[in-house]
Write a structure and sequence with these properties.
By secondary structure, the protein is an alpha/beta fold. The strands form 5 sheets. A 3-stranded mixed sheet has the order 2-1-15, with helices on one face. Strand 13, helix 5 and strand 14 form a beta-alpha-beta unit. The radius of gyration is 17 Å and the shape is globular. The protein starts with a strand and ends in a 6-residue tail after the last strand. It binds citrulline.
């Protein structure tokens, strides 16, 4: 059983962190409806959706992906790069405790889950404004007993590595080549975003299908033409908060500690 941890949109989302985007008004009610649609998509694709406790005073708390890395063997609680986001991790650690032995990134490490792309037994970590080499070294040490490779990747122009590249099929990546060099990842089939849709490289792969924003019709056509099963959702409001679809869930197999 695949679990999806989510958290409802904070009423303070209008005060979210922004790095590459200008602030625009966010309709909180619409953001909540869209987030609900996203949770329904996760359920429709076979996930058990578990909601974390709400964090109404933490503007970015809906973006739960950034707070932990959950692998089959262990979970690592991150130390988010933005100070306003550091308090988000406490409830996530509580929620993950029954499922995985927990580790945590400590100072001077900073890392957001949005910077971590796992492809098989390799973790690629974006060297962005939110993640640093100290955290990479901590992740590498924590995961060494389990046979993972952990590699830093240069990203430019976007918030996180997964703004620039995500996995959309067993052997396929969706990439914005202006923000990351796809050759870094080795031998994958590459679908490039339409150049007029730079933010379109973020999709969540759930089993064999992706959840994907309706905001990128030209890249959507490319995905369909490549045979990727796509479940569209409306995400206009979370996109204004510099969020995307991977960032609104933590997906993992429901293995208990000790299993
Ligand atoms: C932030 O800047 O931290 C939030 N406004 C957006 C976080 C999006 N997270 C993600 O893509 N993993």
């Amino acid at each position: 059983m695949l679990i999806a941890l989510t958290r409802q949109v904070s009423p303070a989302i209008g005060q979210c962190e922004l790095t590459h985007l200008a602030r625009q008004p966010i309709d909180v009610e619409l953001a909540r409806q869209q987030h609900h649609q996203y949770e329904n998509a996760l359920s429709a694709l076979g996930c058990l959706v578990l909601r974390l406790p709400a964090e109404p005073t933490l503007p970015d708390s809906v973006f739960v992906e950034d707070t932990a890395l959950v692998l089959d063997e262990v979970a690592i609680i991150t130390r988010p790069g933005a100070d306003s986001r550091k308090p988000e991790t406490a409830t996530v650690a509580q929620a993950l405790k029954p499922y995985r032995p927990l580790h945590a990134i400590v100072e001077p490490g900073i890392i957001d889950g949005g910077d971590v792309l796992r492809l098989g037994k390799t973790l690629y970590v974006g060297l962005s404004s939110r993640s640093n080499q100290a955290a990479i070294e901590q992740v590498r040490a924590i995961l060494a007993p389990y046979g993972y490779r952990v590699e830093g990747v240069a990203v430019t122009g976007c918030l996180h590595l997964k703004s620039a590249v995500t996995q959309v099929g067993a052997d396929t990546l969706l990439v914005n080549p202006c923000w990351v060099d796809a050759e870094t990842f080795g031998d994958w089939q590459i679908i490039e975003v339409d150049p007029s849709e730079p933010y379109a490289a973020n999709a969540v792969l759930v089993n064999d299908a992706i959840i994907y924003p309706r905001s990128y019709p030209l890249t959507h056509q490319r995905l369909v033409a490549a045979g990727v099963p796509v479940h569209l959702v409306d995400a206009t409001e979370l996109i204004k908060a510099e969020g995307a679809v991977t960032c609104c869930s933590l997906l993992f197999q429901a293995l208990s500690v000790g299993q």
